[in-house]
Automatic annotation (TrEMBL), chains C, D:
Modified residues (Glycyl adenylate): G84
Compartments, record wording: Cytoplasm
Keywords: Cytoplasm, Molybdenum cofactor biosynthesis, Nucleotide-binding, Phosphoprotein
Lineage: Eukaryota, Metazoa, Ecdysozoa, Arthropoda, Hexapoda
Function of the protein: Acts as a sulfur carrier required for molybdopterin biosynthesis. Component of the molybdopterin synthase complex that catalyzes the conversion of precursor Z into molybdopterin by mediating the incorporation of 2 sulfur atoms into precursor Z to generate a dithiolene group. In the complex, serves as sulfur donor by being thiocarboxylated (-COSH) at its C-terminus by MOCS3. After interaction with MOCS2B, the sulfur is then transferred to precursor Z to form molybdopterin.
Membrane-spanning segments: none
Entry protein name: Molybdopterin synthase sulfur carrier subunit
Amino acid sequence: MEFLKLTYDKLSVEAISDLVANPTCGAISIFIGTTRDSFEGKTVVNLEYEVYETMAIKSLKAICSEIRNQWPNVCNIAIYHRLGVVPVKEASIVIAISSPHRGDAMSAVQWCIDNVKKSVPIWKKEIYTDETESWKENKE
Amino acid sequence: MEFLKLTYDKLSVEAISDLVANPTCGAISIFIGTTRDSFEGKTVVNLEYEVYETMAIKSLKAICSEIRNQWPNVCNIAIYHRLGVVPVKEASIVIAISSPHRGDAMSAVQWCIDNVKKSVPIWKKEIYTDETESWKENKE
Amino acid sequence: MTTEVKLVFFAKAREIVGKNHIIIEVNSTISYKDLLKTVVDRFALGDIEKSIILCVNEEYCSASDTLHLSKGDEIAIIPPLSGG
Amino acid sequence: MTTEVKLVFFAKAREIVGKNHIIIEVNSTISYKDLLKTVVDRFALGDIEKSIILCVNEEYCSASDTLHLSKGDEIAIIPPLSGG
């Protein structure tokens, strides 16, 4: 199954992990992106995410299909992205994937986060203590 | 910091994830090993872990040192292994590693679970519905 | 021939334009480059022109596309992504 | 010269022996292979002999080691691992 969500609520790693758990699966791999407190020496006070919602859901679905192509043994996939203000240290994204053996879940999560960053229309703005702000750009 | 624990209690993914979260780290990678409900067609009713405790803690510490050698950017490491009876679908191990950028945390977790399975003196016995039982052996 | 399409703006583009979306009239057959130029000129997006990508009905376009637009099509102005 | 060491058994080995640990007297200088043979013979571990590894004071030994044991050393009988 697939669990995709864009939400203004705090993300619960436990709940997302429970979603993908399955008695036939021995492995769950999770990636959590958390917000950092500084950028090039400036202190981040606040951080906001914005989304192109309909297209984002479409891209997330496309990512899930491609994961199932590449890793047919993958069992469940959850991709939760938080929107709006995200306090420093809290999760902006949680990806959880289960599979019978660990290799599949781990590779799939790695590919998944790379491709979420590349293709899902979501934007982050950082606001610094000196009152400047900046829209970020994924590079990795 | 390092958080190593061998415990008879249920593992909380949320609590372990919170342990390694850090405002300078943008990424947390987590691996969860969960118990499966069947083995070669037999239904597993019960599953038990046993440990050589002092040596296990020593091996876990050695694994952490090696992670810090190989991935100097890794921030916090948590390795929690559950002991005793673990119900099907629940976590037997949770590994969580944080790092400023995601590559380090993800590679380190992968290396960590491989090496926990290889070198930490912990044993699992599966008990089946037909009342047979079997001590398992890590192969992967 | 022209048609009415909906432009939707995000992130930096939305801040510059000051609106989430606007209906405009454009040629119904138009090259990607001309559409981009039209949007950039009309909404003063010159500063971010080089980093913008256009989507039509939630699909990324490429710079070599010729677009055939119909009334109600949604054209999104997509600054560099920073999700995750 | 002989010395008293503590044998500790785990998993299948513990089940076969029926005890967690036992104090025995062994030669204080002994090859890994002789020590393994002594333990296997004395505790009827023939069935799992090939998969056992011995640890001395929580360090894995290799089959080519010559061990120098002192009173109180802990020798662990380690069946194949299955943690994780």
